[in-house]
Amino acid sequence: MEEREMSKKHILIIDDDADQRLTVRLPLEAAGFQVSEAKSSEEGLELVKKLRPDLIVLDVMMDTATAGFQVALALHSPDPNSEYKEFRDIPILMLTAIHTTTPLRFAPDSDYLPVEVFLEKPVDPEVLVAKVKELLPS
Q1: Can the peptide bond before residue 122 be classed as cis, meaning omega within 30 degrees of 0?
Q2: What is the pTM of this model?
Q3: Residue 5: its pLDDT value, please?
Q4: Domain 3-135, what architecture?
């Protein structure tokens, strides 16, 4: 791996929709980020341990209607014995269509929805990149 590649910020996309992963990946790579993908919450949690990403872009509705919430809660758990305690500070950008497909309404909340940013799908690529840059200052 060349030096430039190693200095890139690494983003992990966790989303069960291949088209959505591509829609998120392309603008992030164009902006100079290294991007990896997971197709499920389970695969995402495994890759967090393996890859140690700088930021996670997380879908809500995957294997279950609340899979993304469960991933966020696991990763940002305050439990000192959590198997994910060393990843607690990784920012999570939650990207979802839950507000347009259900009557449920959510916003970041340190106890119930521990994510830094909540964006609606479809997200404008420029908005996505701007939010990621806010969360990952150079």
Answers
A1: yes
A2: 0.87
A3: 53
A4: 3-Layer(aba) Sandwich (3.40)
